[in-house]
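re the bet — no i am not wrong, look at it urself. input seq straight from the record:
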Amino acid sequence: MKTGDLHKPHRMRLYRKPLCILLLVVTIPVVFLVLLTWTPKPYNAVDIRYRARGKPESQVENGLRFLSQKYAHVPYTIKEDVVRLLTSNSCQCQNVDNPINLPFIQKYLPHVWAHSFENVYNVSELEGVKRRRSQEYQSFIERTQSPADLLVVAKANSPLEYPTQGVEVRPLQSIVVPGLSLQASSRDEYRVNLTATLGTFNVAAEVHGVKVQGEGEMHLSLSSPRLENLNRQLEFIVYTNTRFHPNTADTVLLDTDGHQASFTIKVRYRVTPRLYNSGSEEGYNVSALVTIATKTFLRYDKLRDLIESIRKFYPTVSIIIADDSDKPEKIQGPFIEHYIMPFGKGWFAGRNLAISQVTTKYVLWVDDDFIFTANTKVEKLVDVLEKTSLDLVGGAVREVTGYTATFRQKISVESGGEEGDCIHIRKGYHHDIQGFPNCVITDGVINFFLARTDKVQQSSSWTAWVSSTWAPAVMSSSATPRRSSCPGPRRRARKPTPSSATPAARTTT
């Protein structure tokens, strides 16, 4: 053995000690940073898929259908003049001809025209259209309702029982107020008063043994020596909105001897549903459901590559192009709309223009230098929006370098007082989506996303943080979309590459 070999173990120990120290110095801050930023969640995934909940109690058009059986033995007499005020979902569109044909009669008794939209369709296809319309309407109802819309009645912890939410009337219309009752101890006379500020009260039926005062006025008083008769009368209370406002609420004061409560009646128009004909009952007809929109500027070679790649997989899908180039070139072809803008108008103006022209249920936004491949499955994005209450789902992009980007961002606003608020943007997401592996809920997405057209068109402006490759959009507070992220299809190419080289990407909303 050589003499020098005797010192090798000692030298190795000397080298090992500084290395361990270095690892500890690096590892401890990393562990501390992870613990500092990690927030434990009480859940792993949240189910946001549609669930058949039936007709919610808030949709009580004619409240007389919901009379309690508890007071079925109490007699009453219907007031036809008040019942006629209530909505019954039985409107009909019919032509009304003037009985007298005189030159001036049109001014005072104009002719009423009625048009049936069913005549647009052939008889052979009408049944299928009605069936798809019914499914589309049910999806709309389930997506736009929340627990805050359901009728909730506060049980009588005090003697008064009344609705705490879910009561809604259209402007200048009438409803039966549900859930009113009095649960009081025995006394000689029972009395209840109701007071409104934007409407009046009436009764749809008269119950024997109940005295009613103030019909047609803002203050209504009811009294009776029999509690069950009074409660039966409370089931026929009709509220009529008399002061027009398209979106407000009336606070109703309810009181009895020594007790007082209040509840709100929402006064607003219901959202008019926009129902789309999917064109198919089997699978998703992407051409009928989706329009592809993009903004281009001085990159016609990239734009033509994009269109060519789209046509390989979606030959009949509509493509809308907003173009603010200095010397615009004509882009023509089947199912292509090319809109020329003033030079240098800007990316956001182009996005707004393109999206404003979309008439399909969904719009797929892409950059003009993207390439579709065999792994670009728009159907996967459609499936997420069709089966959840989300408004926007974004995809992942694979660069030519092989890097796949999703840009999942968490965006929050912190109050800052008179000087303004603070916007925080951090990488990450809120939670997984049950039923859609690798899909997550997040706030910011990459520039490849599928969105509900009506939602993005509701926003008057887009605010975005732009870097060289991405711009997650944040809608105005009045129309903030619900976004998610899942595995999805797409790729960005800085130069044309074979579509087979583009793998599946992720999808983010």
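see?? The first helix runs from residue 8 to 37. told u. also The mean pLDDT is 78. so pay up
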